[in-house]
Design brief:
Elements: E1 3-8, H1 13-23, E2 29-35, H2 40-50, E3 54-57, H3 60-72, E4 78-81, H4 83-91, E5 97-100, H5 108-116, E6 120-123, H6 126-142, E7 146-149, H7 152-160, E8 171-178, H8 196-199, H9 209-217, H10 219-232, E9 239-243, E10 249-255, E11 260-264, H11 270-278, H12 292-295, H13 309-320, H14 324-340, H15 347-359, H16 368-392, H17 394-402
Parallel strand pairs: 1-2, 1-5, 2-3, 3-4, 5-6, 6-7, 8-9
Antiparallel strand pairs: 8-10, 10-11
Helix pairs in contact: 2-3, 4-5, 5-6, 6-10, 6-14, 9-14, 10-13, 13-15, 14-15, 14-16, 15-16, 15-17, 16-17
The structure holds nicotinamide-adenine-dinucleotide and magnesium ion.
Length: 407
């Protein structure tokens, strides 16, 4: 039976890789809806190729522009815009599968709507799960939704766990691998002055700019530890991070009897995407077979929490529980935006997140409103901090912020 897909964030890196896999299997997958934020031209090209019923963009002006272009090309795709339209295409009867590939907190509402509508959800948007944790997992369970991880590490763990994951028989720990990003070996004293382009130059993966910066600070791995906690139900103490610069082993599961299962492959997101799309079957993804003899050697090292304070901050937020992870994620999104806009330096990202976590009172969320409130106050606090640091000049402020460094 053909799967009908809503692809949230189709113009992004994960979105394009997903369409690449889908195009290889027209008999298995068809597209109900495609969504983008502002990149109207790319969305028009995708609509002309995949002929979805609905296309969603961020604002009325972009919607009007792409509607004109689509009609001129004889394409009947309906065009709508705004956050409610994203929710509508995620819960619509027109689709059975929702690929959650929007970046950041903007993906939470439509992904949660897909869970409440009982859809099959392919989750790339880790920020949505990091923010809402138990609320999201409960919605999946209560409404009979199916959650399949697309994030390469989590997809690898999913592949290495027993099919009946409810039993979790004998799992000692899970080990998330991390490449260490572009600054793994760079002299720490020079990190304060790296540029956004340097931070986005990942050694093994081509990704959107936000996750690329997260990989450079290793906040990405921190968010993934939190993501793994919710997806697989293990406490933070049983989730380990291992630096593996080649990005060939995508993660591992360690069992009580001493066995360790790993999933390997070339670093190309089309593998986990194809796995989740076709699960439990296997389909061709366009990724070349792994040639281990050519790779010759794989290496491993422990993470350096001083070089990568964001990793420690995220692990602490998971241990703290409550709304700490939501606040961490929100502060990080604001700080990464400011770094990409060259308003703060690279090391100020961790300082900002740390200061916001100190400033926001933590509490157990009663529902989504509490999470959204923590998200909003963390964003406000981060913006204020960044604005005051711009006022001081960020070099002066860096010294100031350094006093709040993580232990
Ligand atoms: P990207 O920046 O390349 O694409 C983001 C997509 O989201 C685009 O289609 C954009 O139009 C849309 N978008 C952005 N802001 C939006 C908003 N406010 N409202 C609605 N739509 C919006 O990002 P990406 O690299 O494809 O990452 C997407 C998600 O997948 C992220 O959560 C990331 O952490 C996760 N992920 C990515 C990779 C990767 O290899 N790129 C790997 C694992 C997980
Ligand atoms: Mg990942």
């Amino acid at each position: 039976m053909t799967k009908r897909l809503t692809l949230l964030g189709s113009t992004g890196s994960i979105g394009e890789s997903t369409l690449d896999v889908i195009a290889r299997h027209p008999e298995r997958f068809s597209v109900y809806a495609l969504t983008a934020h502002r990149n109207g031209d790319k969305l028009v090209a995708q609509c002309l190729r995949f002929r979805p019923e609905v296309a969603v963009v961020g604002d009325a002006q972009t919607a009007a522009q792409i509607e004109t272009q689509l009609r001129a090309a004889g394409c009947a795709t309906d065009v709508s815009y705004g956050p409610q339209a994203l929710v509508d295409v995620s819960k619509s009867d027109g689709c059975d599968t929702v690929v959650a590939a929007i970046v950041g907190a903007a993906g939470l509402a439509p992904t949660l709507a897909a869970a409440v509508a009982g859809k099959r959800i392919l989750l790339a948007n880790k920020e949505a799960l990091v923010m809402s944790g138990a609320i999201f997992m409960n919605a999946v369970r209560d409404h009979g939704a199916t959650l399949l991880p697309v994030d390469s590490e989590h997809n690898a763990i999913f592949q290495c766990l027993p099919r009946d994951v409810s039993a979790h028989g004998g799992v000692a720990k899970i080990i998330l691998t991390a490449s260490g990003g572009p600054f793994r070996t760079r002299e720490p004293a020079t990190l304060a002055d790296v540029t956004p382009d340097e931070a986005c130059k990942h050694p093994n993966w081509v990704m959107g700019r936000k996750i690329s910066v997260d990989s450079a600070t290793m906040m990405n791995k921190g968010l993934e530890v939190i993501e793994a906690h919710w997806l697989f139900g293990l406490p933070g103490e049983r989730i380990e991070v291992l630096i593996h610069p080649q990005s060939v082993i995508h993660s591992l599961v360690s069992y009580a009897d001493g066995s360790v299962l790993a999933q390997l492959g070339n670093p190309d997101m089309r593998t986990p995407i194809a796995h989740a799309l076709a699960y439990p079957e296997r389909v061709e993804s366009g990724v070349a077979q792994l040639d281990l003899a050519q790779i010759a050697s794989l290496s491993f090292e422990k993470p350096d929490y001083e070089r990568f304070p964001c990793l420690a901050l995220a692990m602490q937020a998971l241990a703290d529980g409550g709304v700490a992870s939501a606040a961490l994620n929100a502060a990080n999104e604001v700080a990464v935006d400011a770094f990409l806009a060259r308003r703060i330096g690279f090391m100020d990202i961790a300082q900002t997140v740390s200061a916001v976590l100190d400033a926001i009172p933590n509490r157990r969320p009663d529902g989504l409103d509490d999470v959204l409130e923590a998200d909003a106050s963390a964003r406000r606090a981060a913006r204020e901090l960044i604005a005051s640091s711009a006022h001081l000049g960020h070099h002066a402020d860096r010294a100031n912020l350094t006093r709040r460094a993580v232990q």
